[in-house]
Design a protein that fits this description.
Elements: H1 18-34, H2 58-64, H3 68-79, E1 82-89, E2 92-98
Antiparallel strand pairs: 1-2
């Protein structure tokens, strides 16, 4: 990051818990910052990372002919993030993020 401009900010709220505030930053603040010309990326440090817990039913897997490894591979495939970039859309430059 040497030589590149960096903005660091702190967010707090008396009305939102950590989970709600993290969601707000990810889905509102970050999206608006990414729409600003020249912003290449936004990363939240801290807060709450949302997780999904997957519990497999061995009988159901057997009935479907699916293995736990196949489920794991599919989950890894759909949750990957790839780098984005910028594009001209409707005459304006927009930030792109591939999820």
């Amino acid at each position: 990051l040497s030589g590149l401009p960096v903005l660091t900010y702190t967010v707090s709220s008396e009305r939102m818990d950590d989970e709600a505030l993290s969601w707000f930053v990810d889905n509102q603040v970050a999206k608006r910052l990414l729409a600003v010309r020249g912003v290449g990326s936004v990363a939240r440090v801290g807060g709450v990372t949302r997780e999904v817990r997957v519990e497999l039913d061995p009988q159901r897997l057997l009935a479907l002919g699916v293995t736990a490894a196949q489920v794991s591979r599919q989950l890894k495939q759909v949750q990957q993030e790839a780098p984005g970039g910028r594009a001209q859309l409707g005459g304006a430059e927009q930030s792109l993020r591939t999820i």
